[in-house]
Q: What sequence folds into this?
C-alpha cells in the first residue's frame, strides 16, 4: 500500500456494512460527476426547487421550508439548535446514546439550560418520563435523536409532538441515521424541525444535511433575524432579538437564500446538491413503504443469522433500529482483530462503538444501497469464517442458512 502523492485516487472496493457511511448508490456518484453551474443560474435554482419538492416527500411533510444545509449531518443539527435557542432557553433532551450527548453539547454551546431525560444505553426513554420533564421545565425546545447508531436503538417518536404542542415547545429530531430507512412521517408526528445526512439510509456521501422546518418553527427563526443598524425589517419583532452567534448556520439567512428572494449567503455546494437530489429520487422511485420493508427484512435476516451463530444481540431488541444491529463481542474474542480480518480478508467494514460500549459491541449496518440480500449473506458468511478462525465455536453455515430462510419466508408470504 505505497501511495505516491501524485497517484490518482483509487480506493479499494470495500463493502461498508458498519453504522455509516455506506457505499453510495452508483446513480448518486454519476449525478455528482455532472458539470457545475453558477448558484443563481436559473437551471441551478430550478434544481434547488426540485430538491426542496423531493425532500418534502421523503420527510412526508407539507413544510415549505425543506432544503439542504451544506455540511455533514451535524451541520444540520447545529443550524437547527443555534437558530432556535438563545442563551437561557430551556431545552429537554431524551438521551439514550452518543448522539443525545452531542445534542446536549451543542445546546450548551448555545447557552441553553439543558435537562436530559436519560435512559441506559441499549434502551430508549419512556414517553411518561419525557412528559414529566417537559411539564416541569416548560422548555422552548425538545430535541431528540430518532435512531442513535451508537447503541442501535430507535426512540419511538409517537406522542412527543403532542406533548410539545400541549406545553408550547418546539420539537426537533435528528433523523440522520433513519431517514429513508425507517418510517418518519414528519407532519403526522408533529415534529417541527428534522435534520438528516446522506451517508446512512439515503445512500449518498456525507456532506449535505437535508432539513425540514414547520411554519411555527420558521416563525421563531425569523423572529431572530439579523437586524441591520438596529432597525427591524417590517413585520418582524426582531428589534431587540439577540443575534445568533453563527453566520454560516443562521437559518433565517439560509432560508432567504433558498426562497424566491435568493439573497446571497453561501455558494450552494453544487455537487452535493446533485447528489442529494439523486438520493431523494432513488428513495421515492423505490417508494417509502417498500424501502422501509426492505430495511426491516434485512434486519430480521441479520438477526436470525447472528443468533444462529450463537451470538448475543445488544440492547432492547424490540426498539432496535432496523438498519443497524448491535452484537455483544463474545468473551475471549478480540473485537478489533475480528474487524481487521473482516476488512483485510473480505474487504468488509463493520463498526465498533464508543464510550461505555467501546470494545463491548460490534455494529453491523445494512442500509441504503447496501441493504440487500446478498450483502447480508456475504457479511454473515464472512463473520462466521473470521470467528471460526478466532477459535469461536459455532455451527458451520448456519448463519447464512438462517438469513436465507427469513428471505425465503418473506417471498412466499408476499
Ligand atoms: C451518523 C450520525 C450522525 C453523523 O453526523 P455527521 O456530522 O454526518 O458525521 C449524526 N447523528 C446521528 C444520529 C447519526 O447516526
A:
Amino acid at each position: 500500500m505505497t501511495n505516491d502523492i501524485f497517484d490518482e485516487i483509487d480506493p479499494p472496493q470495500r463493502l461498508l456494512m458498519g453504522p455509516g457511511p455506506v457505499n453510495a448508490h452508483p446513480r448518486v456518484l454519476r449525478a455528482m460527476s455532472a458539470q457545475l453551474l453558477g448558484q443563481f443560474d436559473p437551471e441551478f435554482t430550478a434544481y434547488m426547487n426540485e430538491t426542496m419538492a423531493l425532500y418534502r416527500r421523503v420527510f412526508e411533510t407539507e413544510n415549505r421550508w425543506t432544503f439542504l444545509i451544506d455540511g455533514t449531518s451535524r451541520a444540520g443539527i447545529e443550524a437547527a439548535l443555534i437558530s432556535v435557542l438563545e442563551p437561557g432557553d430551556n431545552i429537554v433532551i431524551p438521551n439514550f446514546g452518543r448522539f443525545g450527548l452531542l445534542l446536549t453539547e451543542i445546546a450548551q454551546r448555545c447557552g441553553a439550560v439543558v435537562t436530559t431525560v436519560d435512559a441506559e444505553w441499549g434502551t430508549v426513554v419512556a414517553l411518561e418520563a419525557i412528559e414529566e420533564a417537559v411539564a416541569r421545565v416548560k422548555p422552548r425546545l425538545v430535541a431528540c435523536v430518532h435512531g442513535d447508531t451508537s447503541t442501535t436503538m430507535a426512540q419511538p417518536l409517537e406522542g412527543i409532538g403532542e406533548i410539545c404542542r400541549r406545553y408550547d415547545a418546539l420539537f426537533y429530531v435528528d433523523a440522520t441515521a433513519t431517514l429513508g430507512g425507517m418510517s418518519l412521517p414528519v407532519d403526522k408526528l408533529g415534529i417541527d424541525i428534522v435534520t438528516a445526512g446522506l451517508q446512512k439510509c439515503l445512500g449518498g456521501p456525507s456532506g449535505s444535511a437535508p432539513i425540514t422546518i414547520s411554519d411555527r418553527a420558521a416563525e421563531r427563526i425569523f423572529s431572530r433575524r439579523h437586524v441591520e443598524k438596529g432597525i427591524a425589517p417590517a413585520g418582524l419583532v426582531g428589534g431587540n432579538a439577540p443575534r445568533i452567534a453563527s453566520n454560516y448556520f443562521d437559518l433565517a439567512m439560509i432560508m432567504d437564500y433558498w426562497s424566491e428572494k435568493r439573497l446571497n449567503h453561501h455558494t450552494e455546494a453544487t455537487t452535493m446538491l446533485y447528489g442529494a437530489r439523486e438520493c431523494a429520487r432513488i428513495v421515492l422511485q423505490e417508494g417509502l413503504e417498500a424501502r422501509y420493508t426492505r430495511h426491516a427484512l434485512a434486519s430480521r435476516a441479520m438477526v436470525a443469522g447472528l443468533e444462529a451463530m450463537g451470538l448475543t444481540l445488544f440492547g432492547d431488541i424490540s426498539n432496535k433500529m432496523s438498519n443497524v444491529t448491535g452484537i455483544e463481542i463474545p468473551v475471549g474474542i478480540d473485537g478489533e482483530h475480528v474487524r481487521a480480518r473482516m476488512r483485510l480478508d473480505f474487504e468488509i467494514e463493520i463498526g465498533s462503538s464508543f464510550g461505555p460500549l467501546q470494545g463491548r459491541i460490534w455494529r453491523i449496518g445494512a442500509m441504503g444501497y447496501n441493504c440487500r440480500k446478498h450483502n447480508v449473506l456475504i457479511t454473515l458468511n464472512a463473520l462466521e469464517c473470521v470467528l471460526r478462525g478466532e477459535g469461536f465455536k459455532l455451527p458451520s453455515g448456519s448463519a447464512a442458512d438462517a438469513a436465507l430462510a427469513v428471505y425465503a419466508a418473506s417471498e412466499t408470504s408476499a
Notes: Residues 288-308 form the longest helix (21 residues). Residues 20, 72-74, 99, 145, 148-149, 174, 176-177, 197, 206 surround pyridoxal-5'-phosphate (CB under 6 Å).
